[in-house]
Amino acid sequence: MNKILIKNVKLEEKIVDVLIEGNKFKTIGIDIQAVADKIIDGTNKAILPSFYNAHTHSGMSIMRGAADDMELFKWLNEYVWPMEEKTTDEDIYDAVRFACLEMIKSGTTFFADMYAHYPMTVKAVEEMGMRAMLSPTWFDFGKLELVEANKKHAEEMLKLVKGSDSKIKFALGPHAIYTVCKESLIWMRDFAVTNDIPIHIHLSETEKEGEDCLKEHGLRPAQYLNSFGFFDADVYAAHCIWLDENERKLLADNNVKAIHNPNSNQKLASGAFSFADMKSSGIEVLLATDSTASNNNLDMFEEMRSAALLAKNSSGNPVECSAKEIFDVATVKGAEAFGIDGGVIAEGKVADCMLVDLNHYLLNPGWNLMSDIVYSANAACVDTVICDGKVLMETQKVPNEVEIIANARKFRERLL
Question: Alpha helix (H) ranges present in 129-172?
Fold first, then answer.
């Protein structure tokens, strides 16, 4: 069994040794004497749980900077979807590896993804060694042939993941209520419940989505989904900006996880997520970056800072969304929500973690590490990343990163 010994690392306010055996934290203590396959010097470093990025589109990483400074529906219809029609399996494989590289280098070991070219996404994630919940995006626009093709694809991809890396989970990925018909959403509800798999959907991202839903169905988006029992499944809902009080109650009563994407929503001017309202309604909140095409990065440090500052400003309360609270949302709360026994540095827990460089200028003069991590730090502070007991990055180097970055340029070069 593989053993990693991290010596003299800071854990909270103590300097300790951390022994990882297999994929779990085996022992945390002082001066651990053990024969290890790998010894990491943790001097002047702190060990922290790694991040859980709850909503991404990793295949879009090759579109970063291709279409910026525009409204969401124009962005989708005139730029993103036409570009996506030109992508190949190889493009998506390169894109997902590129996204994984960026996430690893910024301390993320798990992400919940929604995208096409599903087998290539699975292959890339396995090779990069990360955890993921992967959902193939479902669009049908009410067209029967697309409905049936999506059903068949979902059944085939569930079988693919069941035979793949155990760190990968399968989810259904309906894009949104305005791109997926009611028949499909009902089928997905039943398929998810029968097979005990979750559903990952965009919900109430824009004011227009709510207005259109009211015109077409006489209900707001969350009410519409609830009207046919969609929330009987385990649902992860990205954005959740334009919810009224009744909709928030529906989400809370049905244990729907609301995924906050602060930087993407600010950049697209989609609206302001209310952290305080979600919390007071009893809704479980997760944190995410969205895609690099709309963010434009995958750095969870930035998302924590933005989420905390937005919560304080919108509530008028500087105590709202403390550094510790948003760090927990990005780590242990994410682990719990996705059924992973991790998110904390403790004996017996899954060994997913990062080491941050305490000599980095952003973590100095060092009054309060948690405050520094949330309000000051960024990806450049991360030195080492471990996932499932395996080192993915050490001294800020990820294997094959030069090749991965070079391959990420190919799509742009071909389109130009």
Answer: 144-162
Question: Is 220 in contact with 208 (CB distance < 8 Å)?
Answer: no
Buried b (16+ CB within 10 A) or exposed e, 138-164: bbbeeeeebbeebbeebeebbebbeeb
| Alpha helices in 31-88, H assignment, sequence order | 72-74, 81-84
Question: Under 8 Å CB-to-CB from 195, ≥6 apart: which residues?
Answer: 158
* Claim: this prediction has a pTM higher than 0.70: yes
Q: Which residues contact 81 (CB under 8 A, 6 or more apart)?
A: none
Instruction: List domains and CATH numbers for the chain.
Output: 3-49+345-402 (2.30.40.10), 53-337 (3.20.20.140)
Phi-psi bin for 239: left (phi > 0), alpha (psi -120 to 50), beta? left
Per-residue pLDDT of the chain (416 residues; tens, 9 = 90+): 799 999 999 999 999 999 999 999 999 999 999 899 999 999 999 999 999 999 999 999 999 999 899 888 898 899 888 998 999 999 999 999 999 999 999 999 999 999 999 999 999 999 999 999 999 999 999 999 999 999 999 999 999 888 777 899 999 999 999 999 999 999 999 999 999 999 999 999 999 999 999 999 999 999 999 999 999 999 999 999 999 999 999 999 999 999 999 999 999 999 999 999 999 999 999 999 999 999 999 999 999 999 999 999 999 999 999 999 999 999 999 999 999 999 999 999 999 999 999 999 999 999 999 999 999 999 999 999 999 999 999 999 999 999 999 999 999 998 87
